[in-house]
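#struct-pred
JK: can someone run the complex with zinc ion? inputs below
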Amino acid sequence: MVVERQQNTIARPAKVSGFGYWSGLDVSVEFRPAPAGHGIVFVRRDLPGMPTIPAKIEYRVDGPRRTTLTCRSASVEMVEHLLAALAGMQIDNCQVWVDRAEMPGFDGSARPFVDALNTAGVQTLPARRQSLVVSGTVKVGDENSWISISPTTRGKCEIHYELDYPNDPAIGHQTHSTVLGEHDFANGVAPARTFITQQEAEALRQQGLGRRVSYSDLLVFDQQGAIQNKLHFENECARHKLLDVIGDVSLVGCDLVGRIEAYRSGHRLNAELVRQLLNLYPQSVRTSKAA
Ligand SMILES: [Zn+2]
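RT: done, structure tokens with the ligand placed:
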């Protein structure tokens, strides 16, 4: 059976600001309440006509190391942690007013977004949240990295992530699991920060990216551990990859009922799973009632 729930929005607006990791530009984000059925929609208030960009898979474009949404000529970038914060808190309807393309990076986690949304408070709406209940296994990827979703009797979305960096012993092999709407997202998953290896950090810096970002702004690993930083969790990297999965699969636009298992998957594969699911389960077979 499916654990039903009502749709949510936020009770009042909330603001948060910072700078983009890639652009280095200051950006301010305002979350505003939205009615049932509205979904998550970005508004580029800095562009003529204030174009809107819905957080749906059809607007996702593949880019290196980040999730970008483009609708007509307007884009928003690095949206994955913001989307994970909304999805993890089960806020289904929200307008996200922004004044730049790139979202703030903060410490590489979703925590500052969650804190802002907590200040706003959650408001329940008089409409059921639609669910996509998987009835068979769907898997994308190959033996090196994959993500799958299978039926569950739990009635919710379970996620298990397995990460493996055999050449970087300080990261190594880690796992983490969660159940959306049941486990503590705000304290268990949202604070997990993004991470890269020192080699990757140097390569990015040589391309002129991330000049405003320092070692203390995100986790940079050398062979010994995180440089100039302390881990929030011993398996923080696996928790962060799980956070990315939550943000990426939220582009499906409804609740998923199933067990997601991911092995070394990243944004591209996570999005591919969503596309396959929407092909296999068109709108007509999704439900807003108990199945
Ligand atoms: Zn991430």
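RT: quick notes.
The mean pLDDT is 92.
The domain at 6-127 is CATH 3.30.230.20 (Ribosomal Protein S5; domain 2).
JK: thanks, will look after standup
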